[in-house]
Amino acid sequence: MTRLAYEDEGDRNGEALVLIHGHPFNRSMWRPQIDHFRRAGWRVVAPDLRGYGESPATPGKTRLETFAADIAGLLDGLGIERFVLGGLSMGGQIVMECHRQFPHRIRAMLLADTFAAADTDEGKAARRTMAERLLREGMADYAREVLPKMIAPRTIETRPALARQVRDMMAGTSPEGAAAALRGRAERRDYTDLLPGIAVPTLVVVGEEDEFTPVSDARIIAEHVPDATLEVIARTAHMPNLERPDAFNTVLQRFLEALPDGAGRI
Fold this sequence. Notes:
It is a single chain. This protein is an alpha/beta fold. It has a domain at about 5-115 and about 190-255: 3-Layer(aba) Sandwich (Rossmann fold). Helix content is about 45%, strand content about 15%. The chain has a 7-stranded mixed beta sheet, with helices on both faces. Strand 6 (about 200-205), helix 9 and strand 7 form a beta-alpha-beta unit. Helix 1 crosses helix 11 and helix 2 packs across helix 3. It is globular and about 50 Å long. It holds the Pfam family Abhydrolase_1. Keywords: Hydrolase. This is Hydrolase. GO terms for molecular function: hydrolase activity.
């Protein structure tokens, strides 16, 4: 376990909402949700994963099991036993790994723009090749290349400040941390068979125009998790929480308010 940088905002006596960022981002991607849900009475915790943001990098390989253990350790230190756990992209896969390791601690789950299957052999090779490239070249060129898939091209044109924010967040990521995570994800398990065993309320959210994890991937998760709710956010790509935060927050708020003995209503 490593010491993670994190945000911890809102009512310390409120229900905990824990948000896990994707690759190659950091906890700042959740700022619209942190602000919204702390005002709604939730205690919102958003860590920087090992090797991202202000958390130290571990060279080599970081498996999803390690990320999950880091999160459990952080929450232990904060005295948070049960919580709603959400993640986007790689963060969603870490949520699934957390559920595999400690399902009794998770009250409900948000799986955003993610997929459950293991990588194909081609996908594994691509991740390992990209890891080497990032170590060799750094993050700047990669950030420029993938930006039009992270947020929709129309958003890049109409909201240049958001486009810069997303690009700079990616470009500022540690190449060592990103490479270690890519190598670890290449070896992740297939979570598809675990989905039917999820017994907590689950919200599946996806951007309508997401190319990395398309709507079809979200439907597979929603169809396998008992009684899961699927929400498609129109006119967004891989980061609907930033492209259309009001729409994202609305569907998440509706989900949270419907939880048994729910808390944190506005």
